[in-house]
Prior knowledge:
The first copy, chain A, has 109 residues and is mainly alpha-helical. The first copy, chain A, contains 6 helices and 2 strands. Chain A binds a DNA duplex (30 and 30 nucleotides) through residues 28-30, 44-46, 54-62, 79-80.
Amino acid sequence: MARVRPGLPARGSKSGRPIMALLDLLGRRWALRLVWELREGSQTFRALQERCSGLSPTVLNRRLSELREAGIIARGEPTGYALTAEGSELLAALTPLRGWAERWARRSS
Amino acid sequence: MARVRPGLPARGSKSGRPIMALLDLLGRRWALRLVWELREGSQTFRALQERCSGLSPTVLNRRLSELREAGIIARGEPTGYALTAEGSELLAALTPLRGWAERWARRSS
DNA sequence: CCGCTTGCTACTGTTTGGGTAGCATATCGC
DNA sequence: GCGATATGCTACCCAAACAGTAGCAAGCGG
Protein backbone atom coordinates (compact mmCIF):
# COMPACT_ATOMS: atom_id res chain seq x y z
CA MET A 1 0.00 0.00 0.00
CA ALA A 2 3.06 2.24 0.00
CA ARG A 3 2.67 3.61 3.47
CA VAL A 4 3.67 7.16 4.09
CA ARG A 5 4.64 8.14 7.59
CA PRO A 6 6.90 10.97 8.58
CA GLY A 7 9.43 8.61 10.13
CA LEU A 8 9.73 6.38 7.11
CA PRO A 9 12.03 7.35 4.28
CA ALA A 10 10.08 8.84 1.43
CA ARG A 11 10.50 7.91 -2.16
CA GLY A 12 13.59 9.81 -3.11
CA SER A 13 14.83 10.56 0.37
CA LYS A 14 16.61 8.17 2.66
CA SER A 15 16.73 10.79 5.36
CA GLY A 16 13.22 10.24 6.64
CA ARG A 17 12.76 13.97 6.95
CA PRO A 18 9.07 14.59 7.46
CA ILE A 19 8.83 17.19 4.73
CA MET A 20 10.05 14.66 2.17
CA ALA A 21 7.47 12.12 3.23
CA LEU A 22 4.82 14.79 2.96
CA LEU A 23 5.92 15.96 -0.48
CA ASP A 24 5.87 12.36 -1.59
CA LEU A 25 2.40 11.73 -0.23
CA LEU A 26 0.91 14.93 -1.61
CA GLY A 27 2.69 14.47 -4.91
CA ARG A 28 0.59 11.47 -5.79
CA ARG A 29 -2.19 11.97 -8.22
CA TRP A 30 -5.34 13.51 -6.75
CA ALA A 31 -3.95 13.64 -3.21
CA LEU A 32 -3.67 17.42 -3.03
CA ARG A 33 -6.97 17.74 -4.77
CA LEU A 34 -8.75 15.45 -2.34
CA VAL A 35 -7.58 17.44 0.65
CA TRP A 36 -8.78 20.55 -1.14
CA GLU A 37 -12.19 19.11 -1.99
CA LEU A 38 -12.81 18.26 1.65
CA ARG A 39 -12.32 21.88 2.72
CA GLU A 40 -16.02 22.48 3.19
CA GLY A 41 -16.83 19.38 5.17
CA SER A 42 -17.47 15.71 4.76
CA GLN A 43 -18.01 14.17 1.33
CA THR A 44 -19.15 10.72 0.32
CA PHE A 45 -17.01 8.39 -1.73
CA ARG A 46 -19.12 9.01 -4.80
CA ALA A 47 -19.28 12.75 -4.26
CA LEU A 48 -15.51 12.88 -4.22
CA GLN A 49 -15.48 10.89 -7.40
CA GLU A 50 -17.75 13.39 -9.12
CA ARG A 51 -15.85 16.42 -7.90
CA CYS A 52 -12.67 14.95 -9.33
CA SER A 53 -14.42 14.33 -12.63
CA GLY A 54 -14.93 10.63 -12.20
CA LEU A 55 -11.56 9.43 -11.10
CA SER A 56 -11.58 5.68 -10.85
CA PRO A 57 -12.73 4.13 -7.58
CA THR A 58 -9.53 2.13 -7.54
CA VAL A 59 -7.36 5.20 -7.25
CA LEU A 60 -9.80 7.05 -5.03
CA ASN A 61 -9.80 4.22 -2.57
CA ARG A 62 -6.04 3.98 -2.64
CA ARG A 63 -5.55 7.68 -1.98
CA LEU A 64 -8.16 7.62 0.76
CA SER A 65 -6.40 4.70 2.41
CA GLU A 66 -3.04 6.45 2.26
CA LEU A 67 -4.42 9.71 3.58
CA ARG A 68 -6.27 7.90 6.33
CA GLU A 69 -3.17 6.00 7.34
CA ALA A 70 -1.32 9.29 7.45
CA GLY A 71 -3.99 10.67 9.77
CA ILE A 72 -5.04 13.44 7.40
CA ILE A 73 -8.56 12.28 6.73
CA ALA A 74 -10.96 9.96 8.52
CA ARG A 75 -14.36 8.41 8.15
CA GLY A 76 -17.19 10.91 8.37
CA GLU A 77 -20.32 10.59 10.45
CA PRO A 78 -22.44 8.76 9.53
CA THR A 79 -20.94 8.26 6.07
CA GLY A 80 -18.26 9.67 3.83
CA TYR A 81 -14.87 11.10 4.56
CA ALA A 82 -13.71 14.26 6.26
CA LEU A 83 -10.51 15.99 7.29
CA THR A 84 -9.17 15.21 10.73
CA ALA A 85 -7.98 18.01 12.99
CA GLU A 86 -4.50 17.50 11.58
CA GLY A 87 -5.93 17.45 8.07
CA SER A 88 -7.60 20.79 8.67
CA GLU A 89 -4.31 22.26 9.76
CA LEU A 90 -2.72 20.90 6.62
CA LEU A 91 -5.43 22.52 4.55
CA ALA A 92 -4.77 25.78 6.37
CA ALA A 93 -1.09 25.45 5.49
CA LEU A 94 -2.18 25.02 1.91
CA THR A 95 -4.48 28.00 1.58
CA PRO A 96 -1.76 30.46 0.57
CA LEU A 97 -1.71 28.51 -2.67
CA ARG A 98 -5.05 29.89 -3.71
CA GLY A 99 -3.85 33.45 -3.56
CA TRP A 100 -0.73 32.56 -5.44
CA ALA A 101 -2.73 30.74 -8.12
CA GLU A 102 -4.90 33.79 -8.66
CA ARG A 103 -1.95 36.11 -9.08
CA TRP A 104 -0.46 33.51 -11.41
CA ALA A 105 -3.59 33.55 -13.51
CA ARG A 106 -3.54 37.33 -13.79
CA ARG A 107 0.11 37.45 -14.75
CA SER A 108 0.05 34.80 -17.41
CA SER A 109 -3.11 35.95 -19.14
CA MET B 1 3.48 17.98 -23.21
CA ALA B 2 0.36 18.47 -21.12
CA ARG B 3 0.58 22.20 -20.71
CA VAL B 4 -0.60 23.68 -17.48
CA ARG B 5 -1.71 27.28 -17.50
CA PRO B 6 -4.13 28.87 -15.09
CA GLY B 7 -6.60 29.65 -17.85
CA LEU B 8 -6.72 26.14 -19.20
CA PRO B 9 -9.00 23.58 -17.60
CA ALA B 10 -7.03 21.27 -15.35
CA ARG B 11 -7.32 17.56 -15.36
CA GLY B 12 -10.47 16.98 -13.41
CA SER B 13 -11.83 20.49 -13.56
CA LYS B 14 -13.63 22.05 -16.46
CA SER B 15 -13.91 25.33 -14.65
CA GLY B 16 -10.43 26.58 -15.45
CA ARG B 17 -10.09 27.82 -11.90
CA PRO B 18 -6.44 28.60 -11.35
CA ILE B 19 -6.20 26.64 -8.12
CA MET B 20 -7.26 23.48 -9.94
CA ALA B 21 -4.63 23.96 -12.59
CA LEU B 22 -2.07 24.48 -9.86
CA LEU B 23 -3.11 21.43 -7.87
CA ASP B 24 -2.89 19.41 -11.06
CA LEU B 25 0.57 20.70 -11.91
CA LEU B 26 1.98 20.27 -8.41
CA GLY B 27 0.29 16.89 -8.03
CA ARG B 28 2.56 15.33 -10.62
CA ARG B 29 5.36 13.22 -9.39
CA TRP B 30 8.42 15.17 -8.21
CA ALA B 31 6.93 18.56 -9.08
CA LEU B 32 6.49 19.71 -5.49
CA ARG B 33 9.83 18.22 -4.62
CA LEU B 34 11.63 20.02 -7.42
CA VAL B 35 10.32 23.39 -6.33
CA TRP B 36 11.43 22.52 -2.84
CA GLU B 37 14.91 21.44 -3.90
CA LEU B 38 15.48 24.74 -5.66
CA ARG B 39 14.84 26.71 -2.49
CA GLU B 40 18.52 27.44 -1.93
CA GLY B 41 19.39 28.55 -5.42
CA SER B 42 20.18 27.21 -8.84
CA GLN B 43 20.87 23.52 -9.37
CA THR B 44 22.14 21.65 -12.39
CA PHE B 45 20.14 18.96 -14.13
CA ARG B 46 22.29 16.25 -12.65
CA ALA B 47 22.32 17.78 -9.18
CA LEU B 48 18.53 17.75 -9.18
CA GLN B 49 18.64 14.14 -10.24
CA GLU B 50 20.86 13.23 -7.32
CA ARG B 51 18.83 15.16 -4.79
CA CYS B 52 15.75 13.28 -5.90
CA SER B 53 17.63 9.99 -5.57
CA GLY B 54 18.18 9.42 -9.24
CA LEU B 55 14.82 10.07 -10.75
CA SER B 56 14.96 9.26 -14.44
CA PRO B 57 16.12 12.04 -16.75
CA THR B 58 12.98 11.47 -18.80
CA VAL B 59 10.71 12.52 -15.99
CA LEU B 60 13.02 15.22 -14.73
CA ASN B 61 13.11 16.85 -18.11
CA ARG B 62 9.34 16.63 -18.45
CA ARG B 63 8.72 18.22 -15.06
CA LEU B 64 11.27 20.93 -15.79
CA SER B 65 9.57 21.69 -19.09
CA GLU B 66 6.16 21.89 -17.47
CA LEU B 67 7.37 24.08 -14.63
CA ARG B 68 9.22 26.30 -17.06
CA GLU B 69 6.19 26.68 -19.24
CA ALA B 70 4.20 27.59 -16.15
CA GLY B 71 6.76 30.29 -15.35
CA ILE B 72 7.77 28.77 -12.04
CA ILE B 73 11.34 27.93 -12.88
CA ALA B 74 13.78 29.11 -15.53
CA ARG B 75 17.25 28.43 -16.82
CA GLY B 76 19.98 29.40 -14.41
CA GLU B 77 23.11 31.39 -15.22
CA PRO B 78 25.28 30.08 -16.68
CA THR B 79 23.87 26.57 -16.27
CA GLY B 80 21.21 24.70 -14.36
CA TYR B 81 17.76 25.71 -13.28
CA ALA B 82 16.43 28.15 -10.71
CA LEU B 83 13.15 29.50 -9.40
CA THR B 84 11.75 32.59 -11.09
CA ALA B 85 10.38 35.46 -9.03
CA GLU B 86 6.96 33.85 -9.24
CA GLY B 87 8.47 30.51 -8.32
CA SER B 88 10.02 32.01 -5.22
CA GLU B 89 6.63 33.33 -4.20
CA LEU B 90 5.17 29.89 -4.71
CA LEU B 91 7.88 28.41 -2.54
CA ALA B 92 7.04 30.98 0.11
CA ALA B 93 3.40 29.91 -0.08
CA LEU B 94 4.60 26.36 0.46
CA THR B 95 6.80 26.91 3.50
CA PRO B 96 4.00 26.41 6.05
CA LEU B 97 4.14 22.78 4.98
CA ARG B 98 7.46 22.25 6.67
CA GLY B 99 6.11 23.28 10.05
CA TRP B 100 3.07 21.10 9.58
CA ALA B 101 5.23 18.13 8.57
CA GLU B 102 7.30 18.47 11.72
CA ARG B 103 4.27 18.55 13.99
CA TRP B 104 2.94 15.59 12.03
CA ALA B 105 6.14 13.67 12.72
CA ARG B 106 5.95 14.39 16.43
CA ARG B 107 2.33 13.36 16.69
CA SER B 108 2.57 10.11 14.81
CA SER B 109 5.76 8.85 16.43
C1' DC C 1 43.34 16.04 -28.91
C1' DC C 2 41.67 14.15 -24.29
C1' DG C 3 38.84 14.04 -20.43
C1' DC C 4 35.11 15.95 -18.02
C1' DT C 5 30.56 18.14 -17.30
C1' DT C 6 26.57 19.98 -19.30
C1' DG C 7 21.48 19.11 -20.80
C1' DC C 8 18.98 15.82 -22.94
C1' DT C 9 16.96 11.68 -25.85
C1' DA C 10 16.04 6.63 -26.97
C1' DC C 11 14.98 2.47 -25.59
C1' DT C 12 12.79 -1.24 -22.67
C1' DG C 13 10.48 -2.80 -18.67
C1' DT C 14 7.68 -2.09 -14.38
C1' DT C 15 4.48 0.51 -11.78
C1' DT C 16 0.65 3.40 -11.51
C1' DG C 17 -3.57 5.04 -12.88
C1' DG C 18 -8.01 4.87 -15.86
C1' DG C 19 -12.49 2.73 -17.19
C1' DT C 20 -16.12 -0.37 -16.57
C1' DA C 21 -18.73 -3.68 -14.24
C1' DG C 22 -20.48 -5.35 -10.31
C1' DC C 23 -20.83 -6.87 -5.29
C1' DA C 24 -22.47 -6.51 -0.26
C1' DT C 25 -24.61 -3.73 2.98
C1' DA C 26 -27.81 -0.27 4.62
C1' DT C 27 -31.85 2.66 4.27
C1' DC C 28 -35.88 4.31 2.66
C1' DG C 29 -40.88 4.04 1.05
C1' DC C 30 -44.56 0.94 0.66
C1' DG D 1 -41.76 -8.67 3.21
C1' DC D 2 -40.42 -6.15 -1.62
C1' DG D 3 -38.20 -3.09 -4.78
C1' DA D 4 -35.57 1.18 -5.39
C1' DT D 5 -31.79 3.77 -4.08
C1' DA D 6 -27.27 5.00 -2.02
C1' DT D 7 -23.37 3.57 0.41
C1' DG D 8 -18.21 1.97 0.26
C1' DC D 9 -15.54 -0.96 -2.19
C1' DT D 10 -13.25 -4.90 -5.25
C1' DA D 11 -12.01 -7.35 -9.66
C1' DC D 12 -10.69 -7.08 -14.02
C1' DC D 13 -8.16 -5.39 -18.04
C1' DC D 14 -5.99 -1.77 -20.70
C1' DA D 15 -3.48 2.68 -21.31
C1' DA D 16 -0.46 6.05 -19.51
C1' DA D 17 3.16 7.43 -16.49
C1' DC D 18 7.34 6.48 -14.57
C1' DA D 19 11.95 3.96 -13.69
C1' DG D 20 16.47 2.30 -15.26
C1' DT D 21 20.09 2.18 -18.32
C1' DA D 22 22.74 3.65 -22.12
C1' DG D 23 24.41 7.03 -24.81
C1' DC D 24 24.68 11.44 -27.67
C1' DA D 25 26.01 16.42 -28.94
C1' DA D 26 27.89 20.59 -27.25
C1' DG D 27 30.92 23.18 -24.32
C1' DC D 28 35.05 23.89 -21.51
C1' DG D 29 39.83 23.06 -19.43
C1' DG D 30 43.82 21.12 -20.03
